[in-house]
Specification:
This protein has helices spanning 22-27, 31-39, 80-83, 98-107, 118-122, 135-156, 164-178, 189-192, 196-202, 243-246, 254-268, 314-327, 341-347, 359-371, 406-415, 449-460, and strands spanning 5-7, 12-18, 46-51, 61-68, 88-92, 129-132, 181-186, 210-216, 223-228, 230-234, 274-284, 296-298, 304-306, 332-337, 352-356, 376-378, 396-397, 424-428, 432-433, 443-444. It is of the alpha/beta class and 461 residues long. The structure holds ligand BES and zinc ion (ZN) (2 copies). One zinc ion (ZN) is lined by residues 234, 236, 311, 313. Ligand BES binds at residues 234, 252, 309, 311-314, 338-342, 344, 399, 406.
Length: 461
């Protein structure tokens, strides 16, 4: 990533212009440039390459222009790096666009090629490099791009290579990079330490379930705890998913990926907070010792839960982790989870839905997301729906029997494990691009991560 953005002022000028300013820009150009653009049928949208017309360098590349609708959109330049011929360019754009341009530039280079053979990789085109005059800006763009790439890589990695142990290793490596600590409770020890639901969901897999606990920063700073759903593969359990529903369930550890990406942003920016990241990591598998529909589990908090559907496993692993997060007095708990199909139905695949009891935090996150083109939409914790997951034999059931309001009932379930006076935000995210957009290829994606980071950054610096 480092060679894609360089400090300096050398290279072919690359001018980024907004559509609304194009005609004015065109009018300021030489007769030859105007004629070239007209004859190459350029209409002021996307990339245009201008040649040198002076006799000495005639025919060489002189100038590249890229016209976009909105240059401050973080993905406006998301496909630019792959469109330009290789070489060294220097950025020519209004300063206020630089941050978004640099981020989009880097994200355009993202590719998940771990499983391509060397031969396939060799045919890959060489990427251009962009010179920018501000090192701060380069560093910041790289930090955002690395965190986003981390989320994407973790989600894209096939489940066989991204089991609880691999998530644990990733957390460990990340902690080492920034001087954090990781401890893990693995397998039967989960029962010893009273994490019954994490154990129940994960016990049927040959890959032992675990609770990963990363801490970082100065304990005197405000405590913030992130919790991420780390279901490495969600087969549905005994309530097995049909083929189409199971196909992409390697992404069910997307919440874990999001909190690790967010932790990376927080640690690389050295935010003055004390960070704790809790990841219940399990595989929801089928075996003779799998939890069954109708079983009752006493959760860490003491609430008894009847398993109505083994496919509603995310809230089960999260509820013990949330209870622990809440034990440890923190200023704010934020969880991320690929929790319900219902959230996709409500908001589509490209908006992160979130729930919180705190109006101020909701507003802060929404505004931060809008600023940085990472939309987050608040959903209601509508209390009367609590009745929908009541149980006749236990304190509650793990899901509602009906087909409606699934994202809300899942959030209400989680709310039961966080005390009333704790600030808590729950994100239900897709973690996956199902269509390719500029700078956002098909596959793993971070949703709401930059929004939350910007909210935290504004609050804690
Ligand atoms: N991991 C799924 C939710 C999911 C599905 C997220 C598709 C993103 C895309 C979760 O564990 C699940 O299976 N939820 C069920 C809950 C139901 C059984 C109450 C769902 O949403 O159908
Ligand atoms: Zn499930
Ligand atoms: Zn799941």
């Amino acid at each position: 990533m480092n060679n894609l953005l360089t400090l300096g002022n050398n290279g072919t000028p690359l001018t980024i212009i907004e559509k609304s300013a194009y005609s004015q820009w065109l009018a300021s150009q030489s007769q030859s440039n105007q004629q070239w653009l007209q004859q190459t049928n350029y209409h002021g949208e996307g990339l245009a390459l201008l040649p040198n017309f002076s006799t000495k360098e005639e025919g060489t590349l002189c100038h590249a222009i890229f016209v976009v609708e909105n240059a401050s959109h973080y993905f406006a330049c998301g496909n630019l790096i792959t469109l330009l011929p290789p070489g060294q360019y220097k950025l020519n754009a209004a300063k206020e666009y630089h941050q978004a341009i640099c981020f989009g530039w880097l994200m355009g280079a993202y590719e998940f090629s771990t499983y391509k053979t060397q031969k396939a990789k060799e045919t890959k085109k060489e990427l251009p490099s962009l010179a920018v005059i501000d090192q701060e800006l380069i560093d910041s763009a790289i930090r955002y791009a690395q965190a986003t790439a981390l989320v994407r890589d973790l989600v894209n990695t096939p489940a066989a290579d991204m089991m609880p142990q691999n998530i644990g290793d990733t957390a460990q490596a990340l902690a080492e990079l920034f001087d954090g600590q990781v401890s893990q409770i693995i397998g039967e020890d989960l029962l010893v330490h009273n994490y019954p639901t994490i154990h129940a969901v994960g016990r049927a897999s040959v890959h032992q379930p675990r609770l990963i606990d990363l801490t970082w920063g100065n304990k005197k700073n405000p405590h913030i705890t992130l919790v991420g759903k780390g279901v490495c593969f969600d087969s549905g359990g005994l309530d097995l998913k049909p083929a189409a529903g199971m196909r992409n369930m390697k992404k069910d550890m997307g919440g874990a990926a999001h909190v690790l990406g967010l932790a990376r942003l927080i640690m690389s920016h050295k935010l003055p907070i004390y960070l704790r990241v809790l990841i219940p990591a399990v595989e929801n598998a089928v075996s003779s010792n799998a939890m069954r529909p109708g079983d009752v589990i006493t959760t860490r908090k003491g609430i008894t839960v009847e398993i109505d559907n083994t496919d509603a496993e995310g809230r089960l692993v999260l509820c013990d982790a949330l209870a622990e997060a809440d034990n440890d007095k923190t200023e704010l708990i934020i969880d991320f989870a690929t929790l319900t199909g219902a959230m996709r139905v409500a908001l589509g695949t490209e908006i992160a839905g979130f729930f919180t009891t705190n109006d101020k935090i909701a507003e802060g996150i929404t505004n931060a997301g809008n600023k940085i083109n990472d939309p987050a939409w608040r959903m209601p914790l509508y209390q009367p729906y609590t009745d929908l997951f009541s149980s006749t034999i236990a304190d509650m059931s793990n899901c509602s029997a009906g087909p409606f309001g699934g994202a809300i009932t899942a959030a209400l379930y989680l709310e039961k494990f966080v005390s009333k006076n704790t600030n808590w935000v729950h994100f239900d995210v897709m973690a996956f691009n199902v269509r390719s957009l500029s700078g956002r290829p098909l596959g793993g994606e971070a949703f709401g991560m930059r929004a939350v980071f910007n909210y935290l950054q504004a609050k804690y610096t």
